[in-house]
Amino acid sequence: MGWIVVMNTRLNHMTKNSDPIMKKTKTFLPLLLSFFVLAMFTFQACGGSEDESAISEDIEMELYPDSDLTPFQQVHGIGPITERIEISDDIDQEMVMRGRVIYEQKCEMCHQLDNRRIGPSLGDIVDRRSPEFVMNFILNPGEMVRNHPVGQDLLAEHFTEMQYQNLSIEEARAIYEFLRDYHAGE
Ligand code: HEC
User: Fold this and answer.
1) Does position 2 have pLDDT exceeding 60, yes or no?
2) Record: fold of 52-185
């Protein structure tokens, strides 16, 4: 608020011996300014809060202002996962084992954990994407590469379309747990 005080002193100086209208402005203006500054702070604090709560705190993803997708879809992908899921800090080893089996059968031919193959490397995916994004990509790859800006870029980069694998939400979740465990152990 330092500059309001400065402004106030300057006004005091300017309005010495001046007419009553100017005097009125003198008291009113700082008040108006304070209100304006306060409004700015409030606006910043609450701006888009509803959307932000749906978005992630731990990964950085771009938002696309011109997109038709909802902010949730922009960050977490398009597919059957439409709200944030709870992921506990502890890794569920039983789920990891199930995820590993599916990964080896259905993903490994195109994805490696430490290198790009036909598709991107998945070893660090937990740093790059939210769990919901990864699951939506697994469950709905066709729409992700057609209608999601990240998917469109990935397709342009890799030239091959990821196959639809007909997996359940639980299976996709288990693969995510496997990828999370791999990343934690790296
Ligand atoms: C036929 C090869 C192929 C198979 C099989 C495949 N993928 Fe993909 N995947 C790709 C390609 C290629 C991309 C990049 C997008 C595109 O071009 O379709 C991709 C993209 C992804 C992405 C997004 C990566 C990112 O950087 O955001 C995830 C996540 C993913 N795949 C997970 C899986 C999982 C898990 C499986 C197994 C259930 C799997 N994929 C099976 C080829 C494949």
Assistant:
1) no
2) Cytochrome Bc1 Complex; Chain D, domain 2 (1.10.760)
Cα of 180 from ligand 1 centre, angstroms: 16
102 in helix, strand or coil?
A: helix
| Closest to 76 (Cα-Cα) out of 176, 159, 167, 184 | 176
* pTM for the whole structure: 0.77
Domain boundaries of the chain, sorted by first residue:
2-47, 52-185
What percentage of the chain's residues is helix, strand, coil (to nearest 5)? 60, 0, 40
| Sequence-separated (6 or more) residues with CB below 8 Å from residue 78 | 69, 136, 140, 143, 144, 147, 148
Closest CA to 70 of 56, 82, 86, 80: 82
Report the pocket of ligand 1 as residue ranges, CB < 6 Å.
Answer: 106-107, 109-111, 118-120, 122, 125, 128-129, 134, 137-138, 141, 145, 154-155, 158, 160-163, 165, 175
The least confident of 44-58, 60-74, 141-155 is 44-58
- Spatial distance between the Cα atoms of 33 and 24, rounded to a whole number of angstroms: 14
Nearest to 47 by CA among 30, 55, 82: 55
Which pLDDT band holds residue 20 (cuts at 50, 70, 90)?
low
H or E stretch including 111?
Answer: none
